[in-house]
Amino acid sequence: MPGLDGWQTCSRIREVSDVPIIKITGRHKSEEDIARGLDYGADEYLIKPVGNKELVARVRAALRRAELPPSPDKRKEITYNDDFLTVDVTERKVMVKGKRIKLTPREFRLFAFLVENASRILSHKQLLEKVWGWEYTDDVDYVRIYISHLRQKIEPDPTNPRYIMTEPGVGYYFQKLS
């Protein structure tokens, strides 16, 4: 999009679509730049040079993760509601104090998986396989970064979480309060 940088373009696309976004840059970026790209809605962030086989495999993986949701009659209804947080996985809706919260597609997949498995501790590996794909099962930092983003958006006090709980050395779980 003319006049927009990569972050702004990513953000504009994300406002209207859940299409997978793979951001490719020609120069080395800092961890902050990569986190910023992911915050703006990118599903992948790659630094050139990237081999053709790897790029094609990452595109295939992104498309697999972005498969259309099942038809309404095949989906199970997953909801959660208390005075602070409302979640409707089927409708892809998350509300905090009655206000809809914007989550990136990946943030939503991660949060929905936690809510669907409420009170069950999910390992880093389980979360990575379900949300990012099997090729990411050793990249625990992805989970930590996204959990941090979710806490910033959902928790009343992100430094003292009530919903997205950590099981040290194992993983995370969603804790129902009602």
From TrEMBL:
Residues 75-176 form the OmpR/PhoB-type domain. GO terms for molecular function: phosphorelay response regulator activity; transcription cis-regulatory region binding. GO terms for cellular component: cytosol; protein-DNA complex. InterPro entries: CheY-like_superfamily, OmpR/PhoB-type_DNA-bd, Sig_transdc_resp-reg_C-effctor, Sig_transdc_resp-reg_receiver, WalR-like, WH-like_DNA-bd_sf. Signal peptide: none annotated. One of its GO terms (biological process) is regulation of DNA-templated transcription. CDD domains: trans_reg_C (cd00383). Keywords: DNA-binding. Residues 1-63 form the Response regulatory domain. SMART domains: Trans_reg_C. Pfam families: Response_reg, Trans_reg_C. PANTHER family: KDP OPERON TRANSCRIPTIONAL REGULATORY PROTEIN KDPE, REGULATOR OF RPOS. This is OmpR/PhoB-type domain-containing protein. The lineage of its organism: unclassified sequences, metagenomes, ecological metagenomes.
